[in-house]
Amino acid sequence: MVVALLVAAITGGGLSLATTTGTASASTPVPGAPNCPMFPADNVRNTDISGLPVESHSQAWLASMNSASTNLHPDFGPSSDPSNPYGMPFTVVSPAHALVNLAFQYGDQSDPGPYPFGNDTPIEGGALSAGDRHAIMVNPASCTLYELFDAHYSSAGSSAGSGAIWDLHSNALRPAGWTSADAAGLPILPGLPRYDEVQSGSISHAMRMTAQSTDTSFIWPARHQAGASSNPNLPPMGARFRLRAGFDISSFSPQAQAVLRAMQHYGLILADNGSNWFFGGTADQNWPISLVDELKHVPAAAFDAVDESSLMIDANSGETQQPAAAVNCSAGPGYRMTAADGGVFAFCSPFLGSMGGHVLSRPIVGMAETPDRAGYWLVASDGGVFSFGDARFYGSTGSIRLNRPIVGMSVMSDGGGYWLVASDGGVFSFGDARFYGSTGSIRLNRPIVGMSVMSDGGGYWLVASDGGVFSFGNGRYFGSLGGQFLNQPVVGIAATSDGSGYWLVASDGGLFTFGDARFEGSMGGRTLNRPIVGLAPSSDGSGYWEVASDGGVFSFGSATYHGSTGALNLVAPVVGMTG
Q1: What is the dihedral of CA 190, 191, 197, 198, to 10 degrees?
Q2: pLDDT tens-digit map of 244-257
């Protein structure tokens, strides 16, 4: 059974989800270049913004754009000259097309090229145009997008106002402060609705728009401004506008509804100065004048500016935060994650309670599940413990601390008890757990950050932030990194389910493996949205998961992937997980 994100809370309504960020559509290919996406599916332009909050300056920005007395204006459509329709032309060039260098007016903010530009390249407004003269070219072999502003071809030497080159497989933005062929420093082509999209009934990207007066600032994902004055009541480049969900589109034609639905889900991005509420489209003689006229009846007052800052992962990237994927619960047992306040998310596996906002004496720092998956414990930094489900409760240190704060816990493989470990390596054991010694105040090179017990109950390991490891009892010792660091400090350890070795995980997802543990990959320096805080092997030993502080999850090996909370936070950051 495929279910949506499974979240349950038993005590006190303890879980709280942040507002859903956005959902990426499948990126449509460039017409004529079927292997080239119109930027990645998780690009900001391809992300649904229907659930984002209204921007606090929305009313002021709309007032500055005369929204109360202005309607939308499609800046495209048929013309009396079939060879030169209104709109923005683009061409998919042959990979063998001749390349030329251009002299740029804004050379310090332009990509030098060369460009596949020639006397065969269509120019916005036609060859004799005195307007913006945009030229857009796509190389289908390399999936490279080339865009020019004020482009003029001459065999004696070509020129343009500015030029930008884009990798259609990449979310990289231009350097901050750089223009492109548009004033906002954004690409033009992915913001143009096309007639084939309208005919298909679905447009799954934001559209490019203009405003007469803009602020001397820009907001993500824009990279450049061309403002009239420094005035927060003027919209900045990059501002995103969304048609209200309550605007009734049922009386419009199916083609117009496709455009308006896209404006409700993907919106308009302010990309250039020009007439208020003009939005661009491709130059195509097939555009029906009836459709263009219909769209001119949509009032600008039916829009809101939205705050899309929650989508941003990196200011230099157009990649967006994504919500949790659907969870396939038919394929495996699932996992749980715990937050610093004790709140728990459960995926697929039975949910056995939640602290919610009821905190222990100190923040939660670890979680351990019974081997039969019948329950689990949460432990706070002072050693206080809660048990849930059928987990037998084996006491609590309460406010009786070890030499240093508690940083982790581990359960015996036979369910007979558990250990708590402090940052200096001191250990308490409870219940039937056999006690295998304690480092006490004898520290590794760095503070202890986690512990793991052997699956046969023969001992356990402690791991320090630099990867150093102690083993106790009958645990086979599989080496130590000592002072050899991963890219980032070690934050967790997990033993293999068959007891043959263990993994260490760093905050950036990098992994070391010891003993006979099969190595199932490494994130290396590639991070989740937030630092890695925990690691859990799958119960059948086929792989493992890593979890970030915001709940985002990576799976490796044959571990069945059960979704990700992504940017959907618990009340407090995630601090651990169990598989």
Answers
A1: 180
A2: 999 999 999 999 99
